[in-house]
Amino acid sequence: GNSVTQMEGPVTLSEEAFLTINCTYTATGYPSLFWYVQYPGEGLQLLLKATKADDKGSNKGFEATYRKETTSFHLEKGSVQVSDSAVYFCAPAGTSYGKLTFGQGTILTVHP
Amino acid sequence: GAGVSQSPRYKVAKRGQDVALRCDPISGHVSLFWYQQALGQGPEFLTYFQNEAQLDKSGLPSDRFFAERPEGSVSTLKIQRTQQEDSAVYLCASSREKNYEQYFGPGTRLTVT
User: Fold this and answer.
1) What's chain A's average pLDDT?
2) How far is B55 from chain A (nearest CA, A)?
C-alpha cells in the first residue's frame, strides 16, 4: 500500500513568512495527490490537489507541484497569515477507488 | 448544499458497551469512506462503500467493528464491546464517484472509559 512521510512539526512562523511543508510518498503507479487542512475545532477540508505528474494544485495562496521523479508534493505559500494556523495533511489516493493514506500531519502556528 | 454530517459529535462509552456512529453523506454521492483518527495522528482508513456494497473492509481493526450502508446513503459504524484503544475520532467522507475528492464530516469523538 501507499505510505507518506511529512515534515515533522510543529512549525512556527511570523506573519508574511514563507512556508514549505515537505511531503514524500511511496505508491504503486501515479496516484492523485491531496493536501487537506484541519483548522482548530473544524473538520478536514480539501486544500488542493494534483492528479498527474507536473500538475500544480493551488488554492488560497497555497501551491504544491506533483513531482513524479522525486515522489514529492511539497506545500508552499509565499506569505502566511495568522488565519493559516492549522494542521496540514498530505495524502496520496490509492486503490481503484481512491482510498487516502494520510501523513501524520504538520502543525503550523503563525504569530502576528 | 449540505455537507457530510455525523452524529453524535461526542460519545462517551464505558468499556464493554456497544456504540453506533451515524454518517449522512452528501446527497447523491456514491462513495463513502470511514477513517479513524487517533490523537495527534493522521486519519487511517477503515472501510469503503460504493453505494450499498462494502468493497473494502481491510482497515477494520477487529471483528468488533462493523459497518453498513443498506440503502446506499446513510451509513452506520458499529463497535461492539468497546475497548479503551477504540478511543479516537471517527471520520466519514463521501465522494461523487470513486477517485473523486472526498468531503469529510466533522467526526464523532469516541471516548471509552
Assistant:
1) 94
2) 10
Q: What is the pLDDT of residues A55-91, one digit of tens each?
A: 999 999 999 999 999 999 999 999 999 999 999 999 9
Instruction: Name the percent of chain B in helix, strand, coil, to the closest 5.
Output: 5, 50, 50
Query: Can you tell me which residue has the cell 459504524?
Result: B77
Model confidence pLDDT, tens digit, residues B33-56: 999 999 989 999 999 999 999 999
The pLDDT value recorded for residue B1 is 57
Across chain B, where does the E strand assignment appear?
5-7, 10-13, 19-24, 31-37, 44-50, 53-56, 65-68, 75-79, 88-95, 103-104, 108-112
Residue A25 touches chain B, beta carbons under 8 Å: no
Query: What residue of B is the nearest CA neighbor of A5?
Result: B42
For A84, the 3-state DSSP assignment is: helix
B72 touches chain A (CB under 8 A): no
Q: Strands, DSSP E only, in chain A?
A: 3-6, 11-14, 19-21, 23-26, 33-38, 44-50, 56-59, 62-65, 75-77, 86-94, 99-100, 106-111
Q: How far is CA A51 from CA A58, A95, B70, B105, in A?
A: 12, 14, 32, 23
Report the sign of the C-alpha dihedral through residues A25, A31, A35, A36, in that order. negative
